[in-house]
Amino acid sequence: MSPIAVQAGTKSGVDVWRDRRWRKGRDHQDDRDEHGPQHGSLLKCLALQALELSAPASDVLLKSGSQALNQALAQTNNAQVHQVFSAQASAWFQLAGHPDCFAPAGPGRIWKKVGDNTEKMAYEALSCDPALRGLVPRYHGSVSYRDHTFIELQDLLHGFSDPHVIDVKMGTRTFLESEVDNPTARADLYQKMVALDASAPTAEEHAAKAVTKVRYMQFREQQSSTHFLGFRVDAMKERGLPPRNSDLAKVSSRQEVVGRMTDFLGGRKDVQRRLHTRLCQMRDRVEQSEFFRTHEVIGCSIFMLYDDREVGAWLIDFAKTVPIPDDRTLDHRTPWKPGNHEEGFLFGLDNLIQVLNDA
Fold first, then answer.
1. Which of 22, 121, 135, 180 has the greatest count of CB atoms below 10 A from its CB?
2. Which Gene Ontology terms describe the biological processes this protein takes part in (predicted)?
3. pTM of whole model > 0.90?
């Protein structure tokens, strides 16, 4: 019996792929046809960027992913299946975030390790909001392995060939209200702060070699465009080049942000127009979304990418998205005050659309 236990009502990525492999004509903002020249990039697992400042994930995900794939391959004589998975093993890359958080789950799908049920519950709720259909990765359930939980999601790189990729972290606030009163000081966050600016910690923080999470998050906000534009470019990959994120950490002026967006677009006015249309549609639908009206959305990113044929943009990263009290609703543009749960997501999206226009 396989050590991978899939929740009732869900299928593994390989099983679903078998069921649907001849299905054609899907909208390329969702799943794509599994055949053709895209195979080489099938599981270049995107640059799903999550600002989850918890302990680094273990390597159990990649191990379990390999085991699941090996078991699936052992159960089939389909040469095409073997060819696809073999080609994908060397094509894997992650743009940013903790290592070993993602693993292949089958053609067009990935597994993401989750620390608790927050992101799992968020994706379950998101998948029930018609306003957001096609704006978030498709959610295919959860997978349990020993004491770990993984969610199975649409692989947003599937169908793209060596794409240009950018990850934009949204909002004017990158910490939950529940984290404000957390007094725990962390050595790993102190090291991150010093790496960005050795003079930033106070004398007391230098002596303790630790800072609280809120202190570090507010420091990051001030270092970047988060505090005045409501978004920051967290990571980027241009065609033929390795992912880059370290040089983006201190991009703080609007002119610099426009410059990074210009680099990403690479002179492709057609891509600029299509992304503008997509982001405007995204804004309209987020404004209509019941989910967004009733949730504090912290650390969410807009993930944009394009190649010679395709252009896409999705909302990703919901590890710090939580419901707000029942007597409140959010507009995502009102400035944050303690207790109002506003995080500036739509304020940031307004500015992102304008920056895209100016690039």
1. 135
2. inositol phosphate biosynthetic process; phosphatidylinositol phosphate biosynthetic process
3. no
